[in-house]
Write a structure and sequence with these properties.
Number of strands: 3
Distance between the termini: 105 Å
CATH topology of one domain: S16 Ribosomal Protein, Chain: A
Number of helices: 3
Shape: rod-shaped
Largest sheet: 3 strands, antiparallel
Order of helices and strands: EEEHHH
CATH superfamily of one domain: Ribosomal protein S16
Helix content: 10-25%
CATH class of one domain: Alpha Beta
Strand order of the largest sheet: 1-2-3
Strand content: 5-15%
Radius of gyration: 34 Å
Length: about 130
């Protein structure tokens, strides 16, 4: 629905196995963000029936339904929420082959001579007078 630069959305009930833009089971409302204020039309009876049957909403649809004042059944009296994501990613361990290559590629500190630098020059032999 809608067109380029003119968004218009349908609020639908769809099985979790179907494609994002695939078949849907029931049309429960529409959302037109271009009108001022944004127009949300929801069939409250259908929405509450599907929510009571265990339908899960996306975050956006949940926000729209709450704006319309539709109550959400909660499990065990606790509100539904997303699990917290870890904020810091832990670095992956370095594989042994790559670790050896990384150590060999590191430059030696300035105060210590590098073993892999140019080979030591042999001292010139002393010449004897004959």
């Amino acid at each position: 629905m809608g067109a380029k630069g003119q968004p218009f959305y349908r609020i639908v009930v769809t099985p979790s196995e179907s494609a994002r833009n695939g078949r849907f089971v029931d049309l429960i409302g529409t959302y037109d963000p271009l009108k001022d204020p944004a127009e949300i039309k929801v069939d409250r009876q259908k929405a509450q029936k599907w929510l009571a049957d265990g339908a899960k909403t996306s975050e956006t649809v949940e926000r729209l339904l709450k704006r319309e004042g539709i109550e959400f059944p909660s499990a065990n009296g606790k509100p539904r929420r997303k699990p917290a994501k870890p904020r810091v990613k832990h670095p992956k361990p370095v594989k042994p082959k790559k670790q050896k290559a990384a150590v060999a590629a590191e430059p030696a500190p300035a105060d210590q001579p590098a073993e892999s630098q140019a080979a030591p020059q042999p001292e010139p032999a002393e010449q004897t007078e004959s």
